[in-house]
Specification:
Length: 113
């Protein structure tokens, strides 16, 4: 491997580690903030389970598809699209004004997760 290529690949483990960290963080962070989110949406914390399940179920269903997409279109391209979708979904979740919107945007996050 040339030194230029080795340098360009040096950051790859850190990028992958950050992506895995963000996915794990997002899968669990809602549990901590659930009472505050439920209060701001005028819902019971018990009614918020769909917001948790929607993300987890979407990620679980799309794991096999993401492998196929990476093989077909390239790992870098699929990764960049996934990170973009995850980021847009996160922003939309922050701006959601109802539980229905939150669930829909958590699914968008799951597609990118």
């Amino acid at each position: 491997m040339t030194s230029k290529k080795a340098r360009s690949m040096a950051g790859l483990p850190w990028i992958a580690a950050m992506a895995f960290f963000m996915q794990a963080l997002d899968a669990t962070i809602l549990n901590t903030a659930l009472p505050a989110i439920a209060h701001s949406l005028n819902r019971s914390p018990l009614a918020m389970q769909s917001a948790i399940i929607s993300y987890t179920l979407t990620v679980a269903m799309l794991i096999p598809v993401s492998g196929w997409l990476a093989d077909r279109f390239g790992t870098r391209r699929v990764f960049m699209v996934a990170v973009s979708l995850f980021t847009l979904g996160s922003l939309a979740c922050a701006l959601s004004s109802s539980l229905s919107e939150l669930v829909i945007f958590r699914v968008v996050q799951g597609v990118g997760g």
